[in-house]
Amino acid sequence: MPPGYSPSVPAPLMLGLHGAGGSGSSWISAMRPAADTHGVVMFAPDSRDQTWDAIGGIFDEDARFIDRALAKVFSMVNVDPARIAIAGFSDGATYSLSLGLANGDLFPSIIAFSPGFILDATPHGHPRFFIEHGTADSVLPIDACSRRIVPNLQAAGYDVTYTEFDGGHIVTTTERDDAFAWLVAAQ
After folding, report:
1. What is the pLDDT of residues 126-136, one digit of tens each?
2. Does residue 140 lie in a domain region?
3. What is d(CA 27, CA 154) in angstroms, rounded to the nearest whole number?
4. Does 2 reside within a domain?
5. CA-CA distance, 88 to 96, in Å (whole number)?
6. pLDDT digits (tens, 9 = 90+) for 60-103
């Protein structure tokens, strides 16, 4: 919960998904400065295994857990439905794109830091996207990943804010801060 959160005022919410081998607490630690600055409530679960189940090509235990956990968050927090984002880094970014598209009626905003691919699923709603990727990413190379993902999303009619930066497989503080500002500006 960001400082100054008031149950009487609907707040933006970010569901944060860590990269492979990461944790929800590491996501919170990395994102907290921007969340606090922008008044964003964050929820960041751990994947049920080493990484998110979309890597295996399906939505399974992770999706069910997230669904139950979000129901609890929604019962406890006054959430602004226009400013809900699913966000992730690396495998978490792949999962955020995939689960976000399949649930675009719930997630109007999708944030992906260095995604790998999008799992084939029926899209719902019409979310907007914030995607960033390092040009020197050796884990998920930009040419095989975001430079394919972004044009496909744009061709499908989605609003995509896309940034490339000089760097590797990381989330820069600039891109992190830009993503939070982008989320809270949603109407």
Report:
1. 999 999 999 99
2. yes
3. 28
4. no
5. 6
6. 889 999 999 999 999 999 999 999 999 999 999 999 999 999 99
Is 3 within a domain?
no
**Domain span holding position 73:** 11-184
How is residue 38 written in tokens?
Answer: 């922008």
**pLDDT at residue 58 tops 80:** no
Q: How many domains does the chain have?
A: 1
Contact 88, 17 (CB under 8 A): yes
Say what the pLDDT of residue 29 is.
Answer: 96
